[in-house]
């Protein structure tokens, strides 16, 4: 029986005893027994009250732990574990928010797709650990050469997507050009020694009247392939 | 004579061994069964029976808990068991509580302390 059930049973018995005492002249013994019952119930009540408080505290704690865990999981689900950048899903979330903002307020943005040149050769020649080092270093340099407000994501294996908020195509071009140049000039230090790493890119402005960002990415992707075809280590504007 | 209750553990319910020979109720695993109160009701009743039947010998009626996770209903049921044991202890029955926790599972250590600290019965929180 739970403590509540036991207490209810005792309360019922107590009420019957009180009713019986009222009907017949009460003896001292009967009153003493009644007092003991009341004391028992008071003790139970205090225990229940204490347990209720304990349970509330424990439950509140569990709830905040669940919320914390949820938050961690949510972040993990939109983050690339190697580079710490947004993953494809995180990027898609940010892009769709920005696409809505563009429709509602007319704030433009640009999308750049950047792909490390000859990355397969890095992996094949030096192994995947060195390949990972290159990905991490390129991510770090990309992050430091862009602005806090820009969203950088690992879009695929060695491909990065950059969303430049509230940026004209001319300013976006300067940022991308700056990044390519800095990378070209300073080799990436790896366990296999310094490696000369370059990146190709495609840059596309988003049409603020478009309710979807797929077309913008498609254009950036075509521009990226044009840059690859043009000899790599360069970037291209998207064509309509 | 109180009968032995043995229940195999599942992913959401603990392994149970209520052994009248050792007067020990042991719970091990994780505890978030589908219907928590139905799960614990016979265990609370078993404990009540063993406490009532206790011959006043020096072997304590023991609650041995090794639960890594408990839902709120399981915590409430454990509180009921502990209350019953605490009352019996106050009435002169030998009782003991052992709560085994993984030292890295801070949440359970904290929970065990919260449930046990203001009871008068003897208890031990073993971090392993």
From TrEMBL, chain A:
One of its GO terms (biological process) is cell adhesion involved in single-species biofilm formation. It holds the Pfam family GGDEF. It catalyses: 2 GTP = 3',3'-c-di-GMP + 2 diphosphate. Its EC number is 2.7.7.65. GO terms for cellular component: plasma membrane. Transmembrane segments: none annotated. GO terms for molecular function: diguanylate cyclase activity. CDD domains: GGDEF (cd01949). Gene3D superfamilies: 3.30.70.270. Residues 107-240 form the GGDEF domain. This is diguanylate cyclase. It comes from Pacificispira spongiicola.
């Amino acid at each position: 029986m739970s403590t509540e059930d036991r207490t209810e049973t005792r309360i019922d018995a107590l009420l019957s005893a009180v009713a019986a005492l009222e009907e017949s002249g009460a003896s001292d013994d009967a009153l003493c027994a009644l007092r003991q019952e009341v004391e028992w119930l008071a003790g139970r009540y205090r225990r229940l009250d204490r347990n209720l408080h304990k349970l509330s505290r424990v439950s509140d704690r569990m709830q905040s732990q669940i919320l914390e865990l949820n938050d961690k999981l949510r972040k993990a689900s939109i983050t690339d574990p190697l580079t710490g950048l947004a993953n494809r899903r995180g990027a898609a979330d940010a892009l769709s928010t920005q696409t809505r903002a563009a429709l509602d307020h007319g704030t433009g943005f640009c999308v750049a797709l950047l792909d490390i040149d000859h990355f397969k050769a890095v992996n094949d020649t030096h192994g995947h650990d060195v390949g990972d080092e290159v990905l991490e270093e390129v991510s770090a340099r990309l992050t430091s050469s862009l602005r806090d407000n820009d969203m950088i994501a690992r879009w695929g294996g060695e491909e990065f997507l950059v969303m430049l908020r509230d940026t004209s195509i001319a300013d976006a071009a300067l940022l991308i050009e700056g990044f390519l140049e800095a990378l070209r000039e300073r080799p990436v230090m790896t366990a296999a020694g310094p490696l000369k790493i370059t990146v190709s890119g495609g840059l596309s402005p988003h049409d603020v009247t478009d309710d979807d960002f797929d077309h913008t990415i498609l254009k950036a992707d075509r521009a990226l392939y044009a840059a690859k075809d043009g000899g790599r280590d360069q970037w291209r504007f998207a064509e309509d | 004579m109180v009968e032995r209750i043995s229940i195999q553990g599942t992913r959401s319910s603990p392994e149970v061994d209520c052994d009248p020979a050792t007067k020990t109720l042991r719970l091990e695993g994780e505890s978030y069964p589908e219907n928590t109160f139905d799960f614990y009701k016979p265990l609370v009743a078993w404990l009540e029976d063993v406490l009532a039947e206790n011959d006043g010998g020096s072997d304590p009626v023991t609650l041995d808990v090794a639960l890594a996770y408990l839902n709120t209903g399981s915590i409430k049921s454990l509180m009921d068991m502990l209350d019953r044991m605490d009352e019996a202890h106050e009435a002169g029955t030998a009782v003991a509580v052992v709560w085994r926790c993984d030292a890295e599972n801070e949440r359970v250590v904290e929970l065990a302390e919260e449930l046990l600290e203001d009871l008068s019965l003897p208890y031990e929180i073993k971090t392993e």
